[in-house]
């Protein structure tokens, strides 16, 4: 029997041994751990061969039956599963010697050792004739049978097993007889479904047992025992006594050297992940978790702080100044505790890392906070502009540094910060108005085509796409939908209830009966998969035993790109279309606005805080603007109606001129209808200009202007300024006509109203 390595475990880490001994349960204290298909983490679905009882690892087959299927030439899989023997080679009764009555194991040519030697000594060449001539063997005192329960062969010589089982027992190093026998009898847990920890140091073995117990209790990510054995063998080869002997970086480098083909982190490696998981769990047991452990680290592990989604770490290791690093940690900890998202915390750390590089440059050489004054900040702003001008990150870096300096001053974290170390609004790059991101109707028609929607390989992602298109949710909010996300009002109309994570509140959006039926179908499907759990509506397909892990952003985005290529979605110019999930939200807002849905309703559907945000999402189409312009009542400076015939011979040209005028000659209270090629001869005299045109949307400005003009006239008459009063009286008269005309609902009364005034 192989003996374990032994070291004085009490000297490894003070107090750690006692914690591990108290924590590890008896079922995980064995040196060889065996796991069946029913284990939620180290098991899996049973082999598809009825009666096998092993874990199906490949195509639903256990390794043994998959190997047999390959050896037989890969026949029809369904037929193979229905006809093959569930028992595997090595776990079936062995054939006995060919001589009748002899129950010894076969050595060669179908004969036991004794009869094989007898045949060789006989000198007879025809084995079949020799066997037929022998009388049956009669043993008055037969030997004991093999210790393997299902093997009825006689033991071989002085071995406790038959010949074949005895040879295998010796090849395995003569392990404990009872353990060896049980290994054969338990057909559901072959060697590759076991984890052998005997080669590990005693303390390291206890740490590994504790990590496996934690992984088992988490019930979050499956891993095959064979993958665990790779990690165990790797640890045994390092000859360390504890996982805490190296930090995470050192373990990753050692793993990379041992398995160079697994070096890229983009390639999933369950063994590497288990190694780091095990070290973190042991460290957590030894030191605890939370801010007391993470704050002093240069890379905060956010999962150890209770953060389950988003970036896993916030790094400070590239901030070289100790004083800046301490202030950065204090600031970001405060922001996280006040509800800041982890993505924003990562951006904050990156911004201060950039500032640290600037401070360490030879031309700057700042080594204390007292040197960070306004002239230094202006130099940094110049460097940022040179490096990042025109990029979104430019403004983010300035904003994060501004908030950092503001927090130091507000909370009094360091009084040495100069009073002029401030950033002003003029320091931020000017934001240009973003172009509309709504998809063209030509593209949306292709995306909503049932034939194209049916080309989704995954029905879950097809439903996600429908929710994004019809409800305008953000992708993250869609992926977080609970299974009970459909609610009804008093009229039994369906609504989709979701959590707006950006605004940190619940919201409702109306849905149609078709979408409701598909959501209910999806809810039933996931509930059937996890009947005793409360899964999310769109659970992750892998590494999700309890259904609580939602599908990932990147998974949907990659699948969306593949779907677009598969459907050959193209724009009006025939080019392949690139679509982001958020563009569906812009498209819904734009559609609703152009269907004359009031902006307040659109704001509520999209769950925006302000109309300004809704206006950014939802832009009026040119045809909608024209339709409203033609419909609106338009008057000139004297209150007379101005008509724009939509079907006249000059309609298109007139509308083109009007479009340009709205864009370039908009006035505070109307529009200038003067052609762009002409220069206006009326300086600030629009209300007496024949080219002035206005509509009812400017009524509030006209009323306010009218009151101001009346006050000017009264003041001028009181001072005897007759000329000033006369000039403004014409403006007041025109304003009264404009207001009266725009307020009249009956178009037939417009001319009369203007004349009467």
Automatic annotation (TrEMBL):
<dbReference type="InterPro" id="IPR011010">
    <property type="entry name" value="DNA_brk_join_enz"/>
</dbReference>
<protein>
    <submittedName>
        <fullName>Site-specific recombinase XerD</fullName>
    </submittedName>
</protein>
<dbReference type="InterPro" id="IPR050090">
    <property type="entry name" value="Tyrosine_recombinase_XerCD"/>
</dbReference>
<dbReference type="GO" id="GO:0003677">
    <property type="term" value="F:DNA binding"/>
</dbReference>
<dbReference type="InterPro" id="IPR002104">
    <property type="entry name" value="Integrase_catalytic"/>
</dbReference>
<keyword id="KW-0233">DNA recombination</keyword>
<dbReference type="Pfam" id="PF00589">
    <property type="entry name" value="Phage_integrase"/>
</dbReference>
<comment type="similarity">
    <text>Belongs to the 'phage' integrase family.</text>
</comment>
<dbReference type="GO" id="GO:0006310">
    <property type="term" value="P:DNA recombination"/>
</dbReference>
<keyword id="KW-0238">DNA-binding</keyword>
<feature type="domain" description="Tyr recombinase">
    <location>
        <begin position="434"/>
        <end position="630"/>
    </location>
</feature>
<dbReference type="GO" id="GO:0015074">
    <property type="term" value="P:DNA integration"/>
</dbReference>
<dbReference type="InterPro" id="IPR013762">
    <property type="entry name" value="Integrase-like_cat_sf"/>
</dbReference>
